[in-house]
Amino acid sequence: MAKKEQDFVKEITPKSEDYSQWYLDVILKTKMVDYSTVKGCMVIRPYGYALWENMQKELDRRFKETGHENAYFPLFIPESLLKKEMEHVEGFAPEVAWVTHGGYEELQERLCVRPTSETIICSMYSDWIQTYRDLPVLTNQWCNVVRWEKSTRPFLRTTEFLWQEGHTAHRNEEDAEEETLKMLNVYADFAENVLAIPVIKGQKTEKERFAGALRTYSIEALMSDGKALQAGTSHNLGEHFAKVFDIQYLDSDNELKYVWQTSWGVSTRMIGAVIMVHGDDRGLKMPPKVAPTQIVVVPIPAKDPELVNSKVDALYNSLKTKFRIKVDDRDGYRPGWKFNEWEMKGVPVRLEIGPKDIEKGQVVAARRDTGEKIFIPEEKLEETLYQLLEDIQKNMYEQAKQFLADNTYVAHNYDELKEIVEEKRGMAKAMVCGDEACEIKVKEETGATIRNIPFEQEDLGEVCAVCGKPKKHMVIFAKSY
Amino acid sequence: MAKKEQDFVKEITPKSEDYSQWYLDVILKTKMVDYSTVKGCMVIRPYGYALWENMQKELDRRFKETGHENAYFPLFIPESLLKKEMEHVEGFAPEVAWVTHGGYEELQERLCVRPTSETIICSMYSDWIQTYRDLPVLTNQWCNVVRWEKSTRPFLRTTEFLWQEGHTAHRNEEDAEEETLKMLNVYADFAENVLAIPVIKGQKTEKERFAGALRTYSIEALMSDGKALQAGTSHNLGEHFAKVFDIQYLDSDNELKYVWQTSWGVSTRMIGAVIMVHGDDRGLKMPPKVAPTQIVVVPIPAKDPELVNSKVDALYNSLKTKFRIKVDDRDGYRPGWKFNEWEMKGVPVRLEIGPKDIEKGQVVAARRDTGEKIFIPEEKLEETLYQLLEDIQKNMYEQAKQFLADNTYVAHNYDELKEIVEEKRGMAKAMVCGDEACEIKVKEETGATIRNIPFEQEDLGEVCAVCGKPKKHMVIFAKSY
To answer: In 3D, which of B123, B15, B2 has the Cα closest to residue B74?
Structure first.
């Protein structure tokens, strides 16, 4: 490797040296994101936004296939509205941005910039929902939200972020619970089959429940530093908001009843998960299904540039409607420099085309996930590329799954639990008694929290790993983002 | 028509009786939009949002085809940043919402909720742009913006609205001007060929120029009440912002130069134009290319419901991947009631399928634009529907174009000008001297403004229609939204 190329990669701090710095190096140098002049607010640059657009497309299709429609509700929520549901306001008030002036005038009532939209949406649903014929209401919104965070990190925790929030209303508990779990499964399917990130589905403990919800479910993923990240949540809101906002409907039995509601969301945080699950010391690794660029073509300079250029043009034109493909024909950069840059950007497949390849009727492909080089006969290029992208997608998922398996441990007692979360890192499966005191003790003493109570329960013993009292269920402990 | 069906249509105030009320009746009853508990902020309901999504798709494709990438910049702009460009802040300060508190703490510096993003984007460009190799920067953002408006009307003027804002940077004036006009043409093409709305392209006068721009161009459309609506603007910002935000690049001649910038935007306002250009006393008329539902199928009850239902299912399944199609199989509503509801919602084509039609191997189609009924042989259904939607699209454009022609007049002198804008309504073409005094006089005395200086100039005489001094160019006067 030439010195110049080495320098390029050296710009990224190795993961093992400083994981936080590695993360920042990767996202800043690949131009996914930048800091803005507004504290805690990020700028999502085109390369990061293109990833988000691809994620949106995949999610939105799944939402629509499950019967949901998009809508848009106001950014501002009057203070009195936010305060209607007590637990909800207590959960969000500390992190709300307040608008107090419009133009040169002071407002009579402060407006909060939405941290989430349950209250403003419920205020509309109480008008819109009159009879059982109006149900279910299956609405989703793509928007920005603001939470005044003390310490921030791009994508993972920012004052403003982008997300989608589904808000649905149903006739009864059964329908609401079915919806809550259906959307959790949509998230899990999206994470595993599109982002190549294995997740653990489960229920949040009472302590970690969403402010105002009856039950909260989550998908939890394991980052490559051994910390967990909550990648999506789905809440059964019960009748809590309906009772406060008076959302009643006349049922077919002629009785007035409260609706049951759900809400569910994933955010630009998921971009952080993609980076931290798949990235390595050379930079990003984009899962092919959402990669902004799936294939980059690097022409190899020749004595006869026309020969190479016309071949590259022909290939590009034959592939451009089938793949997200780019040609890097910038002057003044050597191929090796370009290879490194596209590796850093995590493009799944690089194609090299030089005079020798043209002579042999072949194209050289390099896989970002394994580094492997493959020589593809030109006439088989399209089908091989489809297969290659599929293989890469699958391999990235398998690797992440193996990492999750390798870094999930069983804790039978408190000593083991402490050792796992403090030294080994990763996820600790443990039986607990269900008492909040144990949860708080672990958090205070080790910094780990209960990520969720997995749906897939295992029998690891008879007693709580923290206090020794009789067990209730298995949970996952981990430090988290 | 049965009484019940008549009542349905009667709910909409006739245009001729009260145009404003007609507009509100139409958008509220078709569930495009609703008022929220926040003054001046609208809720875009699924039917309105689906139209916006289709508009976004068409625009976004055109932006990408012309080389633009999407990104996302913060919602908040520090007060000091907004104030950097004096003319810009003077234009926007009176209508800005201010965030003063985050959580329980007062902020050291107020943040404005973006009314437009030139300043925050320029603050980033000054970091990102270093050499001529970094140019052009072709970025677009889809987002919400807030302008504190005193009097609001859904879609047309709201405190919060959705839009896209393109922000580009170029090496020189020529490139910037080319971009400014290119995007104006993209808007015009979109308005005419997608929304079926004819527009007049031209330059804004100095008085109506965007705060901080060098030159502003607009597309202007004529609503069915004779008022004009500015449907999109494109600004050549010159070097104004570059000088204030220090956006300099090292050119290939090794000299440090300021970039030339543009910005351009269209908003949910365009939804208002679609409603007011095409709607009639029966409700909306959706242009097929963006109609949330292009075709609605209404089964006609039969003694043997299975026969009709299975035919409807079969047709729906064969068409659902080709058109945006819906089946209205709601119980408890008569076909006539359904016909009226879908007419009100402006669905371009309604299909009726009853036992008699099945017997004859045909489907009955009704056009929303002409009311015409057509009997389509079942085996020709798909191709006929394609043709029908195309015809409707074309016919809607032709009708709007005819209306524009019929309501555009020539004013040779001030009396004629006053008569046109005050009595005839519509657009008045007139020669003017270019003096701002004439523009102000007309506005004060008649309420009409210069919409733009059309690119397609005509020679209507030698003197200014307002003051009689020598002419400079032809302008369009009209009252406007």
So the answer is: B123
**A2 and B CB contact within 8 Å:** no
> Which candidate, B80, B77, B75, B115, places its Cα nearest to that of B95?
B115
Give the CA distances from residue B349 to residues B210, B328, B352, B364, in Å, rounded to whole numbers and listed in that order. 41, 13, 10, 10
Q: Report the residue of A61, A64, A99 to disrupt the B interface, i.e. the one with the largest count of B CBs within 10 Å.
A: A99
β-pairing, B408-410 vs B137-146, is unpaired
The C-alpha atoms of residue B301 and residue B196 are separated, in whole angstroms, by: 35
Which residues 6+ apart lie within 8 Å of A379 measured at CB? A361
pLDDT digits (tens, 9 = 90+) for B348-379: 999 999 999 999 999 999 999 999 999 999 99
Backbone angles phi, psi at A462, to 5 degrees: -105, -15
Mean pLDDT (whole number) for B258-269: 98
State how far the Cα of B174 lies from the Cα of B185, in Å rounded to an integer.
Answer: 16
Judge if A14-278 and A408-478 fold alike in CATH terms.
no
User: Coil, strand or helix: which one is B124?
Assistant: helix
Biggest CA-to-CA distance, chain B: 84
- Tell how strand B97-102 and strand A97-102 pair up: antiparallel
pLDDT tens digits, one per residue of A291-338: 999 999 999 988 888 999 999 999 999 999 999 999 999 988 999 999
Structure tokens at B167: 């922000």
Q: B-contacting residues of A 281-340, CB under 8 Å?
A: 332
CA A452 to mean position of chain CA atoms:
17
Q: Judging by beta carbons within 10 Å of its beta carbon (0-12, 13-18, 19+), is residue A430 exposed, middle or buried?
A: buried
Does the model's pTM come out above 0.80?
A: yes
Q: Are A34 and B103 in contact (CB < 8 Å)?
A: no
- SS percent in chain A: helix, strand, coil, step 5: 40, 30, 30
Domain formed by A14-278, architecture = 2-Layer Sandwich (3.30)
Find residues 248-287 of chain A whose CB sits inside 8 Å of chain B. none
pLDDT in tens, B190-242: 999 999 999 999 999 999 999 889 999 999 999 999 999 999 999 999 999 99
Handedness of CA A140, A144, A148, A152 (dihedral sign): positive
ipTM over 0.90? The verdict is yes
How large is the average pLDDT for residues B423-443? 97
Q: Which residues 115-174 of B are in CB contact (within 8 Å) with A?
A: 120, 123-124, 127-128, 133, 139, 143-144, 146, 148, 159-160, 162
Domain range summary for chain B, segments of one domain joined by +: 14-278, 295-388, 408-478
Q: What is the mean pLDDT of residues A226-240?
A: 97
pLDDT bin (cut points 50, 70, 90) of residue A2 is very low
Shortest CA distance from B292: residue in chain A: A69
pLDDT at B412 over 50: yes
Structure confidence by residue, pLDDT tens digits, A238-284: 999 999 999 999 999 999 999 999 999 999 999 999 999 999 999 99
A416: which 2 tokens? 């083991």
Contact call for A160 and B75, based on CB within 8 A:
yes
Q: From CA A462, how far away is CA A398, in angstroms rounded?
A: 33
Q: Which helix (H) or strand (E) holds B169?
A: strand B160-170
CA distance, residue A427 to nearest chain B CA (Å): 33
Helices (H) and strands (E) in chain B, counts: 15, 23
At residue A283, the 3 state secondary structure works out as strand
Q: What is the pLDDT of residues A428-446, one digit of tens each?
A: 999 999 999 999 999 999 9
Query: What is the fold of B295-388?
Result: Rossmann fold (3.40.50)
Distance in angstroms between the alpha carbons of the first and the last residue of chain A: 36
> Domain B408-478 is in which class?
alpha beta
